[in-house]
Amino acid sequence: MCRSGASQRFWVNVAGFQLAWWCAILLTRQSLPVLISLLLLHLIFHRNPVNEFFVVLFCGLTGFGVDLLLTAAGVFQFESLFPPLWLLFLWFCFSATLRQSLGYFHNRWLLASLCGGVSASLTYLAAAKLGAVTITVSLIPGFVLLVLVWMALFPLLLLWLSAQCYPREAKGAY
Questions:
Q1: Where are the domains of the chain?
Q2: pLDDT > 70: what percent of the chain?
Q3: What is the pTM of this model?
Q4: Mind giving me the DSSP string for 69-137?
Q5: Dihedrals φ, ψ of 134, to 5°?
Q6: Quick one: average pLDDT of 9-15?
Q7: What is the pLDDT of residue 166?
Q8: Long-range contacts of 121-126, Cβ-Cβ distance < 8 Å, separation of 24 or more
């Protein structure tokens, strides 16, 4: 492993996730090789790849589980009955930002809740507009539901869970 920490640099991490998001949304199932490659590069160039692996795994599975519940509840609709594999890997890619480019939000729970609620909901609406997912409820109720889900999910589950997987060792560890 390289362990240079390059994947932890803010702009590298942001750019990597943006590439993952656009590939996943535009290419859907054909995006898997790109998503897997980006995840492997992230782990190879991370200072603590084993700890980061568990952050990515647990947080990604948690987020995917929420999307699975929203799909089962009829809020989301995909080409198949279950959320697709590319969405799971997009969740893994998102989880790779929690301790790096989104690290600013650690211990800023209210700000994380507000920003996460609005920005994540907008990404789902954008993904729906681009045809990657169908949101079966009308625009305003659907947006409000997603805001409420993400207001809880981002700070309470993902940021808290990422800290449990990989406790902060020193000031500035994010």
A1: 6-165
A2: 94
A3: 0.91
A4: HHHHTTSEE-SSSSPPHHHHHHHHHHHTTTTTTTGGGTT-HHHHHHHHHHHHHHHHHHHHHTTS-EE-S
A5: -110, 125
A6: 93
A7: 65
A8: 121/146, 121/147, 121/150, 123/21, 126/25
